[in-house]
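thoughts on my protein:
***
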Amino acid sequence: MNVSTSALGVRRRKVTTQNIDDEENSAVLKLGPEFQLNQITNDGEEQQLIALNLSEARLLIRAALKERKHNKNKNKTRKKGGNNNNSSSISNNGGNKNRLNGNHNTNVGDINGGDGDSNIDGNNISNNNDKDINGDRQNKGNNDDNDDDDDDDDDDDDDEDDEDMKEDEISNMELAGPNSNEIVHKTLNFLTNFARFKNRSSCETVEKLLNDFSEHCNEPLHPFELAQLGTLECEDPEEAKSLIPSLQNKVSDVQLQTLLTELRKYQTLS
């Protein structure tokens, strides 16, 4: 009888029996050390844990993308202004060269002397005056270009303020930029569809409302629980506690119903 030696000495993996005591209780929020309320930053400083709901995350990401877009436009404007200044420098150098040639001709006329030399001097002086006038006009034009660039910067700042007030008018594709990847586009679309509070004032009001609500609970709520309350749209306390089981022993149904009503009101206003 032939016996395969490849299976000799190999222990079969047995199905592990699950201990009932090890089962997680959904009513108790258990998180690892990386989710402790007090976090240590890379600089060694202590900082409170921050959890954002979808509305806050949307505003934060859009603000970062707007800042990046604004910096790119400002760099393009500065680069354009630098090219104009370089062109002006080249033109001024040409004018200086013409002035040197004119002075050389004037000196030759002084050495030769005579009435014809005086005419040469007069012509050279006239030519030099014309070149000086042209140079001044060109410098004035360059200064006007620089003033226009400053005005463009001010216009960009005004446009940025208008964008902050009307965030939804900017498409996600335009805000992300042509060189951004597909993940950024999908993230912005997801946040646009599921964020409950669209503007900054509503998010700030909801944040204050949730913090005040946490202080009056039987036990202070975890930042993740507050973020979930700001993200999920629940009709009644039963639905809220089914989606966030850790709220079972922390808050009463009456308190939770009042909070849900207030959240729906600010959602409508936003």
